[in-house]
Amino acid sequence: MVEDYVSALDDDDREAANDLIHPDAEEGEIPEDEWEFMQQFFDSVDVEILDVDEDDDEATVEAEVTFEYDDESESDEEEFELRTHDDEWLIYDD
Fold this sequence. Notes:
94 residues, 47% strand, four-stranded antiparallel sheet, 3 helices, NTF2-like_dom_sf, Nuclear Transport Factor 2, Chain: A, single chain, 4 strands
């Protein structure tokens, strides 16, 4: 699910990314102006899942996210909080 979210970022598909955000997430869906602002900072993005800690309807996913831009790359470890909604795992906090 985190891979799908990052893939949507990489594909410049805001609708697909927003479909993967939990309806009760604090930040909610990504508005178009924020999406366009984010997209200007990378050419591509990739993710590698490092660890998953799942407990009933909540999970924490630790991942290494790599952004590529202007023939350079930068990797950061990110933590994604997931929660279920209608039996589907969705991004609750990233």
